Amino acid sequence: xxxxxxxxxxxxxxxxxxxxxxxxxxxxxxxxxxxxxxxxxxxxxxxxxxxxxxxxxxxxxxxxxxxxxxxxxxxxxxxxxxxxxxxxxxxxxxxxxxxxxxxxxxxxxxxxxxxxxxxxxxxxxxxxxxxxxxxxxxxxxxxxxxxxxxxxxxxxxxxxxxxxxxxxxxxxxxxxxxxxxxxxxxxxxxxxxxxxxxxxxxxxxxxxxxxxxxxxxxxxxxxxxxxxxxxxxxxxxxxxxxxxxxxxxxxxxxxxxxxxxxxxxxxxxxxxxxxxxxxxxxxxxxxxxxxxxxxxxxxxxxxxxxxxxxxxxxxxxxxxxxxxxxxxxxxxxxxxxxx
Length: 339
Prior knowledge:
This protein is of the alpha+beta class. Helix content is 23%, strand content 23%.
């Protein structure tokens, strides 16, 4: 289903039909009462007490799969320049942006309006997206000078978090290095104001396919995570807002972290709701394995009596094929890999 990107024209006065979701997929369909949003755990990466930081990352990953980091080392001017470059891209004249438009999911850089198939239904989410490669950085615009320093700084944050996550799991600090974290990409997402946020979503419910995602956004609000009860990993739950402190980066673990940790760390299921007033732009930097990389539960985590791997080994390329075929639906994806 090809569609004109939302950012190409004037503000919409109503939601076009192809963006209106089936009733059971609309934002209100999965709200089961009202609760106060939880405080997103804050992990201070400053200082050299790695044991303390590793414990905090482990607790946040076990409970939510989401946390925010402060004192992360990404300079404010680097973050600001990258966000301005992203906002400027979506503000370009349509003909300049459309040079990069493609429906080929393997093409990078790629500008598109998101589409998704689910349960035999085809519809569009309220989002424009620019996908760019990060190895090496690829930016399809003259403002690309902002990308390289931002990518380098955010990658350093992700790799430090992965080392600390390994420590928190009781693994060697280098466990996630090499081909397990050798791939990556960035989604530059743009969510224009929506005339009726009750009818659509910016992004549907999903877990990220990789190891860890680092997110920066220009305005708060929109991102929601699925909050589960104790012991409930993948069933019912409550959607709650992810609210981060100014200047913080939001991180979430993906499917590969849950598999490698044998379920000790949660892949954070999330979605994006739309807003009627302000446009929201976010940059999601993904760290994931190389396609040929063999992924398996860390053997050190299944040596105790009664411990068994929850998932079978696979290549990351196989996983991505399943992820795309199942449209990112968490339970359907993971069912292919459970023992």
